[in-house]
Amino acid sequence: LEMKQGRFKSAYQYIERVDSSRSNDAEFLFLRGLTYSALGDIKRSIEDHRKLTEIQPNNADYQLRLTLALIASGDFKNANIAAERLRQLDNKEGGADAAFVIALLKKGDLAKAIEYAEAWKNRLPGSALALATYGKLQLAEGDFVEARSAMVAASQLESDNDVAMYALIDLDLREGRYAEARVKLIEAQKRNPKVAGVYIRLAEIDAKAGDIQSAQAWTEKGVAEVPGSLQLRVLLASRYIELNRLDKALALMKEVE
Fold it and tell me: Is the dihedral of CA 238, 243, 244, 249 positive or negative?
């Protein structure tokens, strides 16, 4: 309960009072390891998670926690060893590798994330997820040529790969390829009409092209499909204010209250 409510220090104080006889209890070790991680005591978190993987060597979740703790500590050699074991346990395509990349990004190490993703795509050349992840990281790095190459390859392997599609859209927008981005966004909207960002980008592209009516229509459609998006509501309310339709703007924003 303390951990769910974010009171990690209280959780730690409680754990410290628990009988030492529970030091081999998997559930207790798991909670204590998470508490140590939350408090920044990575060394003790690793100790608990390593012990967990010894108690239950076939538990993929425990292996994942150990991998993430090792990355947080900067011990990439042992993190790679732990990740290899996680790949053996986790049959989901790319699950362990994706977790590794995310952990590196959380640590703020884009260079290592790119290095890891490159090794991942080379190890699994038929993986659209590996290619799309690598392309997205190259986009963040600013290497647009390498990013586009990887994401196009991912799209060819899996035409419905969302990671590659949205990354390509971002790249098109950055490079000023608005017509190409618009085509992809309309495809994305047809595939999944519940993504607020798609309507926002379509409205921005059409507004930039001077087609204000189309921009408004996309925003209205977006509010209808994703009524919980505050960003879409603000965008549409701003348009209504420009048209001197204060009644519609107020009504739109009141629905949020």
Answer: negative
